[in-house]
Design a protein that fits this description.
Number of helices: 23
Shape: globular
Strand order of the largest sheet: 13-14-12-15-16-11-17
Low-confidence stretches: 211-218
Number of strands: 33
Radius of gyration: 28 Å
Strand content: 15-25%
Amino acid sequence: MKYINVILPLGIDGLYTYSVPESMEKDVVPFIRVKVPLGISKTYTGLVVNAPTEEISIKEGVQIRDIIAIIDSAPVLLPQQYKLWTWISEYYMSPLGDIFRAALPSGMKAEGIYRPKTETYIGLTEQYQNEDALHIALNMLVRATRQLEAFNSYLSLSHWDSIEGDSTREEIVEVTREELMNDAHANSATIKNLCDRGFLRIYDKEVSRLMRDTSLSTQNTPPSILNEAQQKAYDSIYKEWEEHNVCLLHGVTSSGKTEIYIKMIQRAIDEGKQVLYLLPEIALTVQITERLHRVFGNRLGIYHSKYSDAERVEIWQKQLSDHPYNVILGARSAVFLPFRNLGMVIIDEEHESSFKQQDPAPRYHGRSAAIVLAQMYGAKTLLGTATPSAETYYNASQNKYGYISLTQRFKNIKLPQINVVNVKDLRRRKMMQGVLSPDLRMAIGEALHNGEQVILFQNRRGFSPIIECHQCGWVPRCTNCDVSLTYHKNMNSLTCHYCGFTYRMPTECPDCHNPELKDRGYGTEKIEDIIREEFPEARIGRMDLDTTRTRNAYERIISDFSSQKTNLLIGTQMVTKGLDFDHVSVVGILSADSMLNYPDFRAWETAYMMITQVAGRAGRKGKQGKVILQTNNPELPIIRQIVNNDFSGYFRDLMQERRAFCYPPFTRLIYIYLKHRDNQIVNNAGIELANRLRQAPALKNQKGTMILGPDKPAVARIKTLCIRKIVLKLDLSLPLKNVRDNIKFCVQQMMTDANYKSLLVHYDVDPG
């Protein structure tokens, strides 16, 4: 009998061994999928990691079960991919099953059948397809406010609002239900009511999953000619690559880094190589796709989580074919795609924390994984940003990475003028109420009057973070998590942003029955209301997690702002991430303090990056932009460094602080989280594990190594689970493998205690 080892999509360490019936032996090869039994009645799709062999050690008395079926006729994984899986599993202390779940599209973790893709569309019923009938329909909907808003949104999106008599001035455009719901902020019930009343009709239409890619020509336009500064940076990158596998391109905002990338991609393709181009945010892939398509046409593939599973399966299969995409543009999950001839990896906005996966496991960093992937292929890596991360800039300063600086903005546009507003002083002198300072209010008014655009940055979504009873001080809290609920006015609901728990906004305090419930603080939704009231002429877009839950939503918001259909964009950190808009003259940063006061060692680094990045959206064409930065603490050194674009001073201060308090890049960090429904059990487990770790051979009495905790994190209960956190600060000289082995051994020993049967333990290596 011959045996194989199989990875199952389960978060449990180790491989599973199965026997291969003789009739199947010749068809079983590494990296194909097989259907296997587990337990009494369950079956899973597993990934084979070795050819059938008799040389697998099996414990005496253990019964090995046969595989049930072979799913693939050829491997679905390449050897380099499995090598990357193994590295991620070992480095980030995550079971291979977690990597399997994260890497493969869901459609490849089951034996399902792939069906044609259909989308649901909304159309105008035939009886209302003339001007007079439309007026009648609008009059009939006057009392149904939400239906009227949704109907008007449909008419605008589809161009039926251009009707004159029986014909339209503009060509009618098909509108998906998803687009309409996003544009109108309507729910499915509102759309259904319009259909039930005969105003609209609903229909499904089969569409190609890869239509975006196949509908364009192979190549439309050549890359742009680089200016002198860009060409110098381009040449310097290849010179640095002669000595370093990884280079940092440190270019100020709007310096034209993307045009350099495009020319480099063209050179790699001409050399017969593939390119992986990573971006931290789906919103960025939406905007840059058009620019890349103009040059590379259907040689460009897009891959991120907003694509359906079936679409991602098709892209995966195309990458395994004889005619894969030359260029893959995607978010961090694109590192898992198959590449047969990878020659270059570009990681744009490399500083972004979005590259670090948080939940669920594996908690890997997309930037680090991409660098390792490139090394496995012998490829080169370029890291691009206007605000390098501490670790990346430190590596460049130590000559571990090559370094190229690009200090000149494209077309010599000046960096924006940053005006700091002391909102604490203004409020003390009764010169400011609400969230808009007089300076910002005036700047917004002038920009709108001049036909220019404005971006307002508030890193908090919803209407208000806290609702409070004015009489007794009651604050609604989540029943599952230790957090207050956020008020969302559009949905008239209170929502937990950790577990999703939601209930309707009460009309009175449940404790004292006082009807006066006050909202405190400002979210993007509330900012939108304030702007609508103070600037009725503004055409407002909002970009946050609530308005961008679908791929089309990103496209719609960005397209509307780029085409000036909207002229004022309110957003969370999504608006800071390298988006290019030509007519933005004013950027308002409503509260710098909310970022600076966050309880994390990266708070000031993150604040510097976000503020600098969003400030860089101003003054894109023809004139210097203006940034209004509102803060209670204008005397802070970091505020001065942001205003003066003093990256060197900021980095020097940051390194002094990191060295003094033993944080990266001078140490390695590993966070260990313990979770249990019983607070006492998780507390006891945390104390026991910390004590075991302090006695572990790889950690005991090691110079420069600290084991801190257990402590409660800032949010100590999420989804009914109580949490404790242990922090390991490790000297850089320690062998990481020994440390990881010691940690896992301590956990395994502790878990033999029956009291900890339901305890959950997970690791966050190099927390972002």
